[in-house]
Specification:
There is one protein chain. This protein is mainly beta. Helix content is 4%, strand content 77%. The chain has 1 helix and 12 strands, in the order ββαββββββββββ. A 12-stranded antiparallel sheet has the order 1-2-3-4-5-6-7-8-9-10-11-12. The radius of gyration is 27 Å and the shape is elongated. The chain starts with a strand and ends in a 9-residue tail after the last strand.
Length: 272
């Protein structure tokens, strides 16, 4: 489903959309029908929202956000005489959330910039629960629950400038800084009345500057050199990495071109 339209005529507009799967509508009742006490299912959904604001001839503001989740779940219950039962409940879900505010400013008809503030959050969770019930006053009743999660949260600010000296030449430059908050391990275990929690948080700071040039020579030969310098800091240690890149294209005929490119990149943070 999607809805869009103006907020203020010729000044501001919005777009909101969402989607989901209806697989659960079939899987859950079918598994319950064929296997009494069991249930298995999977679903996903995501939401998008965008807002545009015209602040004048030289300024525009864009707001956007996204949230999505996938989940798999399974449960099983086995009943015995006199009201006794065993119940299992397990699942896995992962989700992404992000929001961006971007301000576009036109200095001249050849120079414009974008200032962006970005938030993103990724998390993955698994959980498992078990309960053995023999009666309301029976000491043999058992309960066990566990949950494990991992994720990364980022806060980014970046500024980009684009300069067009003429129709065949463009220069790009910019800088960015990102604060990473990694959550490599967060666990919770509960056995009857005993509960244990453990959580790790690892901060990191990533910063970069870049410049690149795009040149088009007689609509036949295109060359795009560039370099990005990136640094990554965690407590007590810092890494610096140059990231050069070069791409070229030559039109032999109007419908035939040869291309070549080279790039060296670094990835400072990864989640397993």
């Amino acid at each position: 489903a999607m809805v869009e339209g103006p907020i203020i005529k010729n000044k501001a507009s919005f777009m909101i959309s969402g989607r989901t799967t209806y697989l659960d509508l079939f899987m859950v009742p079918l598994t319950k029908f064929f296997s009494q006490g069991s249930s298995v299912g999977y679903y996903f959904f995501d939401l998008n929202a965008k807002f545009n604001f015209d602040l004048g001839k030289k300024d525009k503001l864009y707001l956007s956000s996204y949230f999505g989740r996938d989940k798999f779940h399974f449960s099983d219950k086995e009943s015995y005489d006199a009201g006794e039962y065993d119940r299992y409940n397990v699942g896995l879900f992962w989700q992404n959330a992000t929001a961006t505010a971007r301000w576009n400013h036109l200095f001249t008809n050849k120079i414009f910039s974008n200032l962006s503030l970005v938030f993103s959050d990724y998390s993955m969770n698994t959980y498992m629960g078990y309960k053995y019930y023999e009666g309301p006053n029976n000491p043999n009743n058992e309960t066990y629950n566990s949950r494990f999660s991992s994720g990364i949260r980022d806060y980014t600010a970046k500024y980009d400038v684009s300069f067009h000296p003429n129709a065949t030449h463009r220069i790009l430059a910019g800088a960015a800084i990102t604060y990473h908050e990694a959550r490599p391990n967060a666990a919770m275990v509960q056995v009857d009345t005993f509960t244990m929690r453990q959580a790790d948080r690892e901060p990191g700071l990533e910063y970069a500057v870049y410049v690149e040039d795009e040149i088009n020579i007689r609509n036949r030969f295109r060359i795009n050199p560039g370099i990005r310098l990136v640094g990554f800091t965690v407590p007590h240690k810092t890494w610096f990495s140059p990231e050069p890149r070069l791409s070229m294209s030559y039109n032999i005929l109007s419908n035939l071109a040869v291309k070549a490119s080279y790039a060296m990149m670094s990835q400072s943070l990864i989640l397993l």
